[in-house]
Amino acid sequence: MTDRLAALELLADEDTAARTAALAHFHDSYKHQPNVLLKWLYVQAASDMEGNVANIRALMQHPSFNVTDPAAVSALLGGFSDSIVNFHAEDGSGYAFMADAVIEVGAAL
Questions:
Q1: Considering only CA atoms, which of 86, 71, 77, 3 is closest in space to residue 37?
Q2: Long-range Cβ pairs for the range 57-65 (8 Å, 24+)
Q3: How far is residue 75's CA from residue 71's CA, in Å, rounded to a whole number?
Q4: Which of 8, 24, 69, 77 is deepest in the core (most CB within 10 A)?
């Protein structure tokens, strides 16, 4: 598991077909293990791939994400806050996204 997760973390920063395939394979392999899927969410959210906010918005709609599960919210939004490139984007879009996401989570509770 450690090696697979490390490889996934490396691929997560690249906008390539290999990234997409690896993320899909990891999800399919561990879809019945919710704690492992938290790592899948985190790896994608923490990615420094440019423009990752769109991917995180999509993950917020993914069946494996539950906005009322504190661990899932922490994995996704906490992961995003670990992305220096995207969370601290010069145009402020990372902060705007986080504010909107926190409001969305609050409304769902």
A1: 71
A2: 57/97, 60/101, 60/104, 64/27, 64/31, 64/37, 64/40, 65/41
A3: 6
A4: 77
Least Cα distance to 47 among 76, 68, 18, 69 occurs for 76
**pTM for the full predicted model:** 0.94
Map tokens 């994608």 to a residue. Answer: 44
Give alpha helix (H) positions in 1-109. Answer: 2-12, 17-30, 34-45, 53-59, 70-73, 79-81, 84-87, 93-108
CB 39 within 8 A of CB 79: no
Q: Give the pLDDT score at 69.
A: 97
For 46-70, how does the pLDDT look when each residue is reduced to its tens digit (9 = 90+)? 999 999 999 999 999 999 999 999 9
The rounded distance, in Å, linking the Cα atoms of 80 and 83 is 5
* High-pLDDT (> 70) share of the chain, %: 100
What is the residue whose two structure tokens read 């990752």? 52
